[in-house]
Design brief:
By secondary structure, the protein is α/β, with parallel strands linked by helices. It has a single domain, classed as Alpha-Beta Barrel (TIM Barrel). Helix content is 38%, strand content 19%. The protein contains 12 helices and 16 strands. The strands form 4 sheets. Strands 1, 2, 3, 6, 7, 10, 11, 12, 15 and 16 form a 10-stranded mixed beta sheet that branches. α10 runs parallel beside α11. The protein is globular, with a radius of gyration of 19 Å. The protein starts with a strand and ends with a helix.
Length: 354
């Protein structure tokens, strides 16, 4: 069975964070562990954020950095590519109109969702994805001339409504998406999507041009390779050493705006009840403890072994505070009686598209 280790290479969605502390340093640790285990990852590079940082640096604003963050990002991506890692496109549209004011980034929260992207300028979803794809190709082709960006992950999983996104992807040559996760549901001020009807038994599907959640009646243009997720009581996600450490070390920035919105208006009783309700957890190699990884492996081996063979795992370097979670995942996979192999998203797409 295939495990696809992916991570979103980015700062925090609200504009907080430090390129070196939350991207460069933890990514070095992740890639070092992967090199020891001979694992190739897929890095979803947040390009719009990168472009805003570059624009500000080129204007002469060092944004508090003692050395060039753009140069550091470029060098890290080049090194990753040289070692065989896969680089693909990640887009948080709130960065399109972001401004650096009073020593911090102010992002455009009205443009949180890619599927609802809008701007005052004559700038479409197609333009946004095309700029992202070409920027990524310009960076990577410096060390790998034949490189082509083929995959997208929408920021905070917000690819819905998907019709315009799929049309734009098709026009510019993107071939697959990995934003959807079975059981996912958000209906807040920022994130809005409903993936509750997505089957756990599908490795991939060709998306209907009007709706990425439905299969195309004939061979589609865009493939969806979902992130693997299972429903679990919420307290397992929150009362977990890796998560608590991330919240403490990252100075509170790891608490998402979505999570704050969910809890802010609830009474104490409602907050306690909320913790015992179930929620779909994406398989996370930065925040899960060993027990949670075992839960996911056991579910696969007991329920899905004869039905599918590829599982996309997710992580965020900004939440990576200890090597324990990633090393535990690799150890369990290597010791399992099942045969697990780690592949990139590019590799499994090539297999599926045959």
């Amino acid at each position: 069975m295939n495990l696809v280790l992916t991570f979103d290479y980015e700062l925090f969605g609200d504009g907080l964070g430090d390129v070196f502390e939350h991207m460069i340093k933890p990514t070095e640790q992740i890639l070092s562990i992967c090199e020891e285990a001979n694992i190739k990852t897929t890095i979803f590079f947040e390009v719009v954020e990168y472009l805003r940082l570059k624009e500000e640096w080129n204007k002469g604003n060092n944004m508090g950095y003692e050395r060039n963050p753009i140069e550091a990002i470029d060098q890290q991506i080049h090194q990753a590519v040289k070692k065989g890692h896969d680089i693909q496109l990640h887009i948080h549209p709130q960065w399109v109109n972001a401004k650096y004011i009073n020593d911090k980034w102010q992002v455009d929260l009205l443009n949180w969702r890619l599927g609802d992207f809008k701007t005052n300028r004559n700038y479409s979803i197609k333009d946004l994805l095309e700029d992202g794809k070409s920027t990524l190709e310009n960076i990577v082709q410096k060390v790998k001339p034949e490189y082509e960006c083929i995959a997208l992950r929408a920021g905070a999983y917000n690819i819905m409504p998907s019709k315009k996104v799929l049309a734009a992807m098709t026009k510019i040559g993107l071939k697959l998406d990995s934003s959807v996760y079975p059981g996912g549901y958000e209906d807040g001020e920022l994130s809005k999507y409903d993936y509750r009807n997505i089957s756990l038994e599908k490795d991939f599907w060709w998306a209907d041009p009007d709706n990425i959640l439905q299969e195309a009646k004939s061979l589609g243009r865009i493939m969806e390779i979902p992130i693997f997720a299972l429903e679990q009581p919420r307290w397992k996600k929150i009362l977990n050493f890796e998560k608590l450490k991330s919240l403490l070390i990252k100075r509170g920035a790891a608490v998402s705006s979505v999570a704050k919105t969910k809890l802010s208006s609830k009474s104490l009783f409602e907050k306690i009840a909320f913790l015992f309700e179930t929620e779909a957890f994406t398989w996370d190699f930065c925040l899960f403890n060993k027990s949670m990884h075992k839960t996911f492996f056991n579910y696969i081996e007991e329920n899905l072994q004869d039905k599918r063979d590829t599982f996309v795992i997710l992580g965020h370097p900004k939440s990576f505070t200890t090597e324990h979670s990633l090393r535990s995942l690799i150890e369990i996979a290597q010791k399992s009686n099942c045969s697990y192999s780690f592949k990139t998203l590019q590799e499994v797409y090539a297999e599926f598209s045959k």
